Amino acid sequence: MSLRFDTVTVIGVGLLGGSLGLALRERELAGRIRGVGHRRSSLEAALQRGAIDAAHEDLAEGVADADLIVVCTPAATALAQLAEIRAHCRADAVVTDVASTKSRICAAGRALWPAPSRFVGSHPMAGSEKFGPEHAVATLYEGSVTFVEPPADHDPDAYAIVRGLWEALGSRTVEIAPDDHDAVVARTSHIPHIAAACLALLAAEQPGARAAAGGGFRDTTRVAAGRPEIWRDICLTNAESIGAGLQALSKLIAEAADAIGRGDATALEAFFERAGEARRQVTEK
């Protein structure tokens, strides 16, 4: 479908929001791009990068008259902002988000926007450990997967616009129920981040770790350098799935520790063989 918006409002102009603005501009999908944020320095940086045309610290002012509103703030912040957005946006505005958790945000969207709902929850699997508009790139979403909640009582046009938006930016959209989404990303994104944080903390306790921290360690712990407030909110808004996954992870760690403690070479080899096969199942197409 052909997309062209008169006014797009991006709430949160960090890496994801700034990259969205740059991508919209490069593809000429928006006549005007507004940025909303509470840090003036970030707004000014987004303006200088050309990611936005106008900066607003007042959310109500920023969303007024926008055709499309994309919430690019951390999950808990996004939840708090939805009611204010609903009170001040146009009735026909299309609203979506990029948060890494979906159950609570999509439930809030269903409660706030009457059927047929023009809020459609989405989550592009794109980003890095870097943050801020200074690291934004127009190509961030190219080749990524964007999860979109399945159509239920959504407005068909709004639903098509949200899917069309991400596809126009080079992403492949995949429908997934919010609860299923949170269970999957808990084990493929959220818990790996927590594990990376634990590994970084563990290594830092050991004198001499800096000299021994090679490429494997750096690759494994790269995401631990991400913004703490984002991962705080992810944990708080996906507590059930993350908690269950951490318990399962603890059992696997205990299994390995037991085999090591017993000096059981056969069990250890089998453990690593299972792990290798599991990785192939998850990563190979």
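(the above was protein one; protein two follows)
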Amino acid sequence: MKLSNISKAVNGKLFGDDLEIAGLSIDSRLPQKDKIFICFQGKRTNSQKFVLDAKANGATAIITENKLSVDIPQIVVGDARKAYSLAAAEYYGYPQKDMKIVAVTGTNGKTTTAYLLKKVFDEDGKKAAYIGTLFADYDGKREETSLTTPDPDVLFELLSKMKQAKVEYVFLEASAHALYLKKLESIVFDAAVLTNVTRDHLDFFGDMETYADAKKSLFTQERTKLGIINADDRVGLEILKHAEIPCVSYGLLNPADVFALDVVHDHGLTFTVNMCDVVFTISTVLYGSYNVENVLAVCTVAGYFGVKPSSIAAALKNADVPGRFNVYENKGVKAVIDYAHTADGLKKLLLSALDMTKNRLITVFGCGGERDKGKRAAMGRIAEKYSDYVFITNDNPRSENQYEIAAAIEAGMLEDRKKIVLDREEAIKQAVEMAVEGDVIVIAGKGSEQYMEIAGEKIPFQDEAVLKKYFL
């Protein structure tokens, strides 16, 4: 593809020869042969150095916000991050135009909602795809994704493959980071879901208002055609009140277009759905009131796109989500593995686990390093409040001191029903050894992750494998 095509797509000005490019890159350290390097600029960014590195590694041209004194063709733009998304869409031929794409955003519930939507649409005979925290799933293939929302060059390559596979619907997790960094600027979504907004990622956003604004930015006329909003969420209510796009609401507590009745928690969930006056019953292996909300979101999206209630019910009957409230049982003891890694997520998880606890609730969890430090003590308080015993352990400490993270969690706890065991495998082992008939063990924070990130190294580790080693 010619640089002039990219320049036109990103509303830029081309300086230099109109060369052919063979891809896009944002990492100057990687091989760049014939690629265009997107140069982000900021207070801590040495643009000149990164461009020289990219050129040395084979870059053909750059996209930049300021013309640089470097002998390489340049496309100068007003916003390099927005240009990154626009350039990726141009390079891969705008595959989003040939599929209906639904974004799911929120602090918790994105993965469950988006993943279940794919299952429901598949059940109804539609060809669907999922892109998110777990992986990319389409046409019988699964590809690993390193980010909840892939970077634009990765995302649009995936969408191009999905178009070639004749995918009709794509369900995409849209993280707050992706929205803030304009990764999705070149997509106008056919619908967007807001699950909830609770504390998370304040290490990046600084305050809840900025974090919530990143989520809310999705629900504008420029970004999506329809909002599907949780009416029980504070930010959701704000969107519903001020929306400039059509919205459909769902919820359990506040009046909503789609709501649940007669919820029964027994070996999963059974409840009646009223979907804009279409009434049907859902019975699922999923647990917890928060999963009633997730299912209502799924029903709302599916109903809007004409999926039959029978397909919704059939798909959800035995559907589970990797690393999301996965239940294991042995000799009267139950164990739950879940991805919950925020204060609100942990609270909802533990309350749901209590619903099936006949004796004690034993919790194993930690907090990630280099992330919002303010939530650590709060999560300690929640774990202590709802658990009979807590093992504080590692959860991707990254470059932070492991004991300092654990100590920050412990600082929020008042009682002695706790123990710091930094070795996560040993913590799970001790929890299993402590458990007796009627107990429930909750292992929170990592879900289906396949690694532990310590000091810049990703070490193979999986909660399920460790649990099965000592429990089953």
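Reviewer note on protein two: Residues 95-317 form a domain with the UDP-N-acetylmuramoyl-L-alanine:D-glutamate ligase fold (CATH 3.40.1190.10).
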